[in-house]
Amino acid sequence: MDTIFAQATAAGRAGVSVVRISGPDAFKVASDMVGSLPRSHQSALRLVRDSDKSIIDQALVLKFDGPNSFTGEDIVELQLHGSMAVMQAVLRRLSMFPLTRLAEPGEFTRRALENGKLDLAQVEGLSDLIEAETEAQRKQALRVFSGHLGSIVERWRADLIRAAALLEATIDFADEDVPVDVTPEVTTLLEGVSVEMGNEVEGSKIAERIRSGFEVAIVGAPNAGKSTLLNALAGRDAAITSEVAGTTRDIVEVRMHLDGLPVTLLDTAGLRESEDAVEVIGIERAMARAEIADLRIFLKQPTDVLPVEPQADDIIVHPKADLFPDVKNGVSGSTGAGLTELVDRVTDVLKSRSSAVGVATHERHRSAMLHTLAGLERVKNILSQGSEQYDIAAEELRSSVRALETVVGRIGVENLLDEIFLSFCIGK
Questions:
Q1: Could you tell me the domains of the chain?
Q2: H or E element, residue 376
């Protein structure tokens, strides 16, 4: 492989900036710039010199011998003063070596994958960790990056391979007088994996929402105070408010965090019969978005009849509590009455759902597990037809194992790699 280099910290002025060099000639290139290198996994202060031996900067140099490094290759990191001029000079010097080139986006992480330092799920976990904005996202991403999903998949894979081995052993000794019925043990193994994987599939839906954010739609009749409530919750004027009913035509989104959970609040058009073509489009969008939201807050008076019905866990509050001071369960975006209680209720609902979170966090993970589960169901149906079908069941089981292996990138994911690593910054 080529020896690659890149700035591993954000561009711009900073206290410290880091340059990473990885590949077979990393030590040779770095020693040409800084002189003697420190021992492996240790650091030393060195002068960084240009091609004419003039001093560029003073840097803390760290050396990592492969395969005991992030990429599995020899790595040198230069911790420099965070001047843009210093960074440009160092990168320019590195580009002069015939043995080096600038890294592509995510190439350091891709080499870690190719060298067996990470599996594909860990790569996705690392990407999510870099993008994490809330505490819940950080914790979830760290679980995946630490290899927890890979460990679970490997345990499932071992059980399925054990089941396949039992079937194939029976096939191999079909002509022998070995009266062993392996169906009970195989069925037990398949059932155990199916139950655990089914639970993980359900938990992955919540995990994906933690990663991308829960959607909470504010629903109600026109002029019920939805936009005012949204602005109060957001702490800014995110939506236009007016005494004129039907002001909100399109969906207004506000991103916020509730006790570490990422939440997107949706202000929707007031639900009513209308002859205004533009308002009708807004109402249709509001209804469609409200239907698929994770949670709905209904601003609803007892006499209101809305075309969207509350679902389990949805929250119904009386709007404009400032005008109805004696009403119970009221909220007012104008005065802030009931806001704290409303936020607590939303948080409690979402945290309750988050308690069932799985380790699988991406649609790709869920799709692979669903394919595996479908295959295991076919295997169980084939087994019920008797030992004469063991060979077919064994082949179907092998296909299920292959589907499962795509979760961690063992097979069949080459077409995904470019897309995944494109989302990484160049220094990662």
A1: 3-114 (3.30.1360.120), 135-209+362-409 (1.20.120.430), 213-354 (3.40.50.300)
A2: helix 363-383
